[in-house]
Q: What sequence folds into this?
């Protein structure tokens, strides 16, 4: 009898402990089903995250530290900043795929004089970014609720130019296939200024990898890849006028300005030296076969290719 | 008499096969429509709204038109001709969609109305014609009023089964293996060839139509 009471109380204790610790680990503070995905805002201690489609294992998310909203909490956002090593002062920036708007906020803080255009297809994501992630909009920061491809085509017609385009429209579960084709990349290239840079948050572990890589190479020639061991994101960094092999290293030696940039980046949690180590040119090591097929508007089964991981 | 019955069954099977193919083609093209429009109008929810609206609307007109058309000396030859026309009207989707969508993109800023106009211009006519085939098939298959419901039911079964297979095969495999234009042109060729085969068959079996008429009279 006493034995069973002990067992019971032990069970209860374990149950309570699990319940309480789970509660402390992640608390859903907002969830909604939008036209495009399930949006979830979660608090885990100091960390607040925006998630799409919870149950998927490779769901991508934007997070911020509530106590230090200026710190970048995620690896791939830091990797995207590698563009600043090539061009430290982009004047006009286009971000396709808003997430929590943390990228836009960070860039505004780093480059207060630059124009930033955010494009996000899902009106609900924009709303959540404003409400829960302190997404800032003003004279210089604009948001357009539109399909990325349509925005880019319209911007081309208006002869707009950007010094830096950030393509971050892939949330892990569903890939907008028309944002991964040769034609789309050509349109993006057309939007870039002479020295313009495209950074894209892409996939690194599925059959899609060689297809995607070959497509970027077909449009931009060789490019930089920014990867590290901690996550399975790969950032592609492509330049409008091609890679000058040494450009990143050259930039590194430009003392004063560079020191200032390094200090600014360190303040938001980005270690420039590590970033340098993570940047590799495909001219030196290309890790996909040369004869990989490219994705076009006619042939773009990106989601089917992404099913098979190997 | 026995032999005549067998040859009629064979013809009917062929008509069911044709209905299956038209069902397959409709959904195959509808599925590709999303991919065709995406480069110009994106993949927002309203793009599918435009596409499905146009397909439903054109099918409804197709049913009406096909039914009407079947009352005026219906024949296997005319039935085959509809297939050929369907095949031909599908071709502009492969050949002219780019410049057409470019023009619409320039003229209309709102991607809702842009995509609606584009899908109307590209898909309305071929889908009306493919829709005509269902009531026309019923006309060719029904021999007496008593079996008309069963024949219509069987025809819807076969055509809708074709639609289901057209949807899954296109979205699971065809887009992984072929270019969009290759798929569209193949569908167009298959429909046209089936149409030509139908006409050849109808003319090499001139008794077919006659035996229909005789049976009609006998039952009446």
A:
């Amino acid at each position: 009898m006493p034995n069973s009471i002990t067992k019971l109380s032990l069970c209860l204790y374990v149950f309570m402990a699990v319940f309480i610790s789970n509660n402390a680990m992640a608390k859903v503070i907002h969830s909604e089903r939008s036209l495009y995905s399930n949006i979830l805002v979660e608090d885990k201690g100091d960390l607040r995250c925006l998630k799409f489609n919870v149950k998927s294992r490779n769901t991508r998310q934007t997070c911020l530290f509530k106590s230090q909203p200026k710190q970048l909490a995620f690896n791939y956002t830091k990797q995207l900043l590698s563009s600043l090593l090539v061009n430290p002062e982009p004047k006009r920036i286009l971000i396709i795929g808003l997430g929590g708007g943390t990228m836009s906020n960070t860039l505004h803080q780093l480059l207060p004089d630059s124009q930033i255009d955010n494009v996000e297809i899902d009106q609900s994501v924009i709303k959540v970014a404003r409400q829960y992630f302190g997404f800032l909009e003003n004279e210089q920061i604009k948001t357009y609720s539109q399909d990325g491809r349509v925005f880019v085509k319209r911007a081309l017609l208006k002869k707009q130019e950007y010094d830096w385009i950030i393509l971050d429209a892939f949330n892990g579960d569903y890939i907008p296939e028309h944002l991964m084709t040769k034609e789309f990349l050509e349109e993006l290239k057309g939007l870039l200024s002479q020295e313009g840079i495209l950074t894209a948050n892409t996939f690194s572990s599925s059959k899609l990898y060689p297809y995607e890589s070959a497509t970027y190479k077909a449009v931009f020639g060789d490019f930089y890849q920014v990867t590290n061991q901690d996550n399975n994101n790969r950032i592609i960094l492509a330049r409008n006028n091609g890679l000058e092999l040494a450009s990143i290293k050259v930039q590194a030696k430009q003392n004063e300005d560079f020191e200032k940039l390094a200090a600014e980046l360190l303040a938001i949690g980005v270690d420039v030296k590590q970033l340098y180590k993570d940047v590799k040119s495909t001219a030196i090591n290309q890790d996909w076969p040369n004869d990989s097929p490219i994705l076009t508007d006619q042939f773009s089964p990106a989601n089917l290719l992404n099913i098979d991981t190997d | 008499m026995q032999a005549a019955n067998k040859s009629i069954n064979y013809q009917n099977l062929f008509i069911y096969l044709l209905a299956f193919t038209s069902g397959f083609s409709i959904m195959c093209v509808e599925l590709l429509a999303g991919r065709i429009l995406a480069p110009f109008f994106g993949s927002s929810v309203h793009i599918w709204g435009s596409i499905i609206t146009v397909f439903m609307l054109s099918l409804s007109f197709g049913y009406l038109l096909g039914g009407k058309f079947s009352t005026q000396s219906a024949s296997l030859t005319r039935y085959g001709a509809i297939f050929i026309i369907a095949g031909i009207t599908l071709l502009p989707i492969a050949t002219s969609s780019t410049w057409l969508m470019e023009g619409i993109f320039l003229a209309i800023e709102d991607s809702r109305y842009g995509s609606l106009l584009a899908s109307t211009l590209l898909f309305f006519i071929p889908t009306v014609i493919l829709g005509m085939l269902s009531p026309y098939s019923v006309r060719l298959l029904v021999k007496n009023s008593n079996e008309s419901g069963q024949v219509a039911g069987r025809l819807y079964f076969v055509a809708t089964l074709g639609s289901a297979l057209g949807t899954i095969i296109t979205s699971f495999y065809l887009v992984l293996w072929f270019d969009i234009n290759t798929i569209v042109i193949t569908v167009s060729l298959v429909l046209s060839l089936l149409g030509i085969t139908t006409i050849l068959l109808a003319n090499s079996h001139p008794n077919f139509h006659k035996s229909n008429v005789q049976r009609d009279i006998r039952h009446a």
